[in-house]
Design goal:
This protein is an alpha/beta fold. It is 33% helix and 14% strand. It has a four-stranded mixed β-sheet with strand order 2-1-3-4, covered by helices on one side. It is rod-shaped and about 110 Å long.
Length: 129
């Protein structure tokens, strides 16, 4: 025996139901994944291995790099690296860099010192209070 179903005209809601399900699933997925966003890895700055400041050694040349990226000698006089290196090209030196000095400037200075033949650089940064 066959029973016939009562025929009902398709409504607009029936056609929208699958699309609404997909949209709600996407909404829930986005809400869950938005809270799981990965934080960038923090930069770990190494701690000083020396509790007291280094004593000034007249045999080791010193340069200072201030926060504006200006290079100075031990007396605080602004110097050009090329001219300073031709006067007394050292094998090692101490570079006192201000903590606020731009990173690319410090890296560029270290590369220029390496190209000039300096084999050892002690990079000293000011301690933040």
């Amino acid at each position: 025996m066959r029973l016939s179903r009562p025929s009902r005209p398709p409504s607009r809601t029936d056609a929208m139901l699958p699309m609404m399900n997909v949209v709600l699933l996407l909404l829930v997925f986005m809400m869950l994944m938005g809270g799981v966003a990965l934080a960038p890895d923090p930069v770990l700055v190494p701690r000083s291995t020396q509790a007291t400041p280094l004593a000034a050694d007249a045999a080791v040349p010193e340069l200072q790099l201030d926060a504006d990226g200006v290079l100075r000698d031990r007396d605080g006089v602004a110097v050009e690296l090329a001219r300073w290196m031709t006067q007394s090209p050292p094998q090692s030196l101490r570079l006192h860099a201000d903590a606020q000095a731009p990173g690319p400037v410090v890296v560029g200075l270290l590369q220029a010192l390496q190209a000039a033949g300096v084999s050892r650089v002690q990079l000293l940064a000011t301690q933040r209070q």
